[in-house]
């Protein structure tokens, strides 16, 4: 079985993040197609994905397209039954599907007032009553799913599709400083520390695309996730490695980074920049820093 996933801009596209996590967080190999939203290239990319007009969109075995995130998760649960998209317990599985469906169709006030932006946080946003009502509903759902006795930080203990669907909401709560209780904030923090989420965000920072429609009239603030290891792009230095930790290709002179004092080489500037954005998101880079 082969999968090709179409996504938009990592910094802003919350639905793309959901679709991408359904693969990356469940260790399902896939090929990624990406285009900048609101450009001719975006529509051109989607021509290969059946009737798709939005992202994410999925092509299965180069044969048929799945053109909505809810359809994608149900298709993957069918085709990859051992991946763990839904809990094994029937009652938990039903609740997880309920949560995925409500996230898919609801929380319009929160989504409208707080567009996702994982590049940085915003300071000074004041939620209105509709946004506060959405937050209260989220806390009710999360508390119901995170029943006593579950192991792990996720809604059903182990990471499921429900967590993937709520990841962009966690980014909004963190990025806008929205008021939630301690238990809900612990769940948000679990998303911010989640390896696949951190890799998604780091790649968005490396791509460095700014869309004016997402620039809001607030002051920018530092991202509230885990602190980044000291890292910067450098030139004219000798790296400790001869091949890129991701591709195995030879290191290039224009793709060097100093991370926590160690100079590491990469095969292209993007590999360097995604590593500089968040070194600890990348096990391949961290392996080179290990004692």
Automatic annotation (TrEMBL):
The keyword Transferase applies. GO terms for biological process: glutathione metabolic process; L-phenylalanine catabolic process. Signal peptide: none annotated. Pfam families: GST_N_2. Keywords: Transferase. Residues 3-84 form the GST N-terminal domain. InterPro entries: Glutathione-S-Trfase_C_sf, Glutathione_S-Trfase_N, Thioredoxin-like_sf. Coiled coil: none annotated. The keyword Transferase applies. GO terms for molecular function: glutathione transferase activity; maleylacetoacetate isomerase activity. Its EC number is 2.5.1.18. This is Glutathione S-transferase.
């Amino acid at each position: 079985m082969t999968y090709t996933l179409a996504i938009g801009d990592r910094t802003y596209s919350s639905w793309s993040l959901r679709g991408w996590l359904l693969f990356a967080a469940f260790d399902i190999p896939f090929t990624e197609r990406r285009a900048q939203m609101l450009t001719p290239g975006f529509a051109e990319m989607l021509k290969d994905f059946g009737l798709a007009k939005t992202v994410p969109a999925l092509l299965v075995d180069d044969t048929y397209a799945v053109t909505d995130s809810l359809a994608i998760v149900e298709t993957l649960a069918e085709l990859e039954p051992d991946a763990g998209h839904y809990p094994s317990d029937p009652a938990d599985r039903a609740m997880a599907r309920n949560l995925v469906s409500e996230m898919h169709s609801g929380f319009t006030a929160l989504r409208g007032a707080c567009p996702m932006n994982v590049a940085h946080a915003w300071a000074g946003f004041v939620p209105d009553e509709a946004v506060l009502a959405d937050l209260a509903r989220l806390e009710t759902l999360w508390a119901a799913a995170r029943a006593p006795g579950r192991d792990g930080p996720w809604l059903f203990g182990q990471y499921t599709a429900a967590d993937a669907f709520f990841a962009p909401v966690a980014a909004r709560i963190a990025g806008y400083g929205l008021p939630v209780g301690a238990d809900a904030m612990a769940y948000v923090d679990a998303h911010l520390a989640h390896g696949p989420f951190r890799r998604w965000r780091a790649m968005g920072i490396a791509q460095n695309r700014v869309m004016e429609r997402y620039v809001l009239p607030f002051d920018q603030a530092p991202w509230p996730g885990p602190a980044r290891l000291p890292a910067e792009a450098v030139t004219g230095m000798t790296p400790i490695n001869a091949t890129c930790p991701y591709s195995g290709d030879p290191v290039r002179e224009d793709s060097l980074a100093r991370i926590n004092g160690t100079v590491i080489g990469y095969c292209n500037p993007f590999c360097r920049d995604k590593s500089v954005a968040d070194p600890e998101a990348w096990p391949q880079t961290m392996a080179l820093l290990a004692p």
